[in-house]
Amino acid sequence: MNNAMEFRSGQEASNDHRVLVFGRLLGAANRLEYLLGRDLEQEIGITHSIFELLLLAARAGDEGLPVRAIAEARVLTSGGATRLVQRATALGLVDQEGSISDARVQLIRLTDHGESVLLRASTRHAENIEKYMLNLLTPMEAKVFGTALKKISKNAAQQLPSMP
């Protein structure tokens, strides 16, 4: 079937290899999000969203990260990103400070406590990634999978509209 053809039945559409591949990707991501997120909450005491925020703040380093960048990276509205940052701030994991160059911009940085929690959470998270994903693949499959996901993720990020 080429891209210009229309499906003739629901069964044909639901069994299309492209639809199945995306469904498997989404299903795997949702299941892994549940398993790994639940473990972070039970063992470390943070949600997966907070963990992702800590990773973003760590990557930004001492420069800090604008809330808008968090919204774009996590595909959140600016209000959603602000609420996420407020939760992390209340837990003492990040600090907020106005930008020197633009007082309207709040920069987010890890606190020492946030760094400590991030290190514990990252160790646990990496172990679970090995357990639930990478141990199922050969080293070559893992490399190809990682490369393909990076390419797909980068393309999807470029196609996204700016978040409100």
List the helices and strands and how they pair.
Elements: H1 10-14, H2 17-43, H3 48-60, E1 65-66, H4 67-74, H5 78-90, E2 94-98, E3 106-110, H6 112-132, H7 139-159
Antiparallel strand pairs: 1-3, 2-3
Outline the structure in words.
- The structure is a single chain.
- With 164 residues, this protein is mainly α.
- It has seven helices and three strands, in the order H-H-H-E-H-H-E-E-H-H.
- A three-stranded antiparallel beta sheet has the order 1-3-2.
- Strand 2 and strand 3 (106-110) form a beta hairpin.
- The chain is globular, with a radius of gyration of 19 Å.
Concise synopsis of the structure shown:
The protein is mainly alpha-helical and 164 residues long.
Descriptive key words:
164 residues, mainly alpha, 3-stranded antiparallel beta sheet, 66% helix
- Straight-line N-to-C gap: 37 Å
Q: Specify the number of helices.
A: 7
Strand order of the largest sheet: 1-3-2
| Helix/strand structural class | mainly alpha
The string of secondary-structure elements, in order, is HHHEHHEEHH
Average pLDDT across residues? 90
Number of strands: 3
